[in-house]
Amino acid sequence: MSLPRLVKWLRIASWTAFAVCIVGQAFAGLGFNPPIGLYVALFLSVFLIGTATGIVQFKIVLIERDWLLGSYETLLRCFPIWVVLLCIALVVGIVVQALLQPTDSSYLGLALGFALQAGALSSLSRQPWLLIKHACPNGHEVNFYNRFCPTCGALLPRSSERT
Ligand SMILES: [Zn+2]
To answer: How far is the CA of 147 from the centre of ligand 1 (A)?
Structure first.
């Protein structure tokens, strides 16, 4: 599967799981506790999607880039502002719930995990040049952050100017 498609499907999976978390939380709030299996499945999904996202991220920045800087430029730079606001609302919700119903299993924490992942994946897909293969004018494969071709030394356009 190509990287843009993988990122798209991971993003859809994150938002779907996010919706399930909110529905689960709504049911729990009404007094109908969903089966514990649902909680476990969502918990595992956070790790699975997170691992897949981490592998995509690693593939993009490889080992030549500083991990923190690379993560800012890829996962955070185009993080949608409305997802930031959603995450802040979820944190407030988690704190309120912890104060009011400290014993209930919270789906909001899982929802926060999925929202963060979906935002990071959106950030990746808003920078499509991160996800496609690049070549220098002479056909050598280069990374998006290369300013010169490592093979022949040709000057390369900036990554965001490449199509
Ligand atoms: Zn070259």
So the answer is: 11
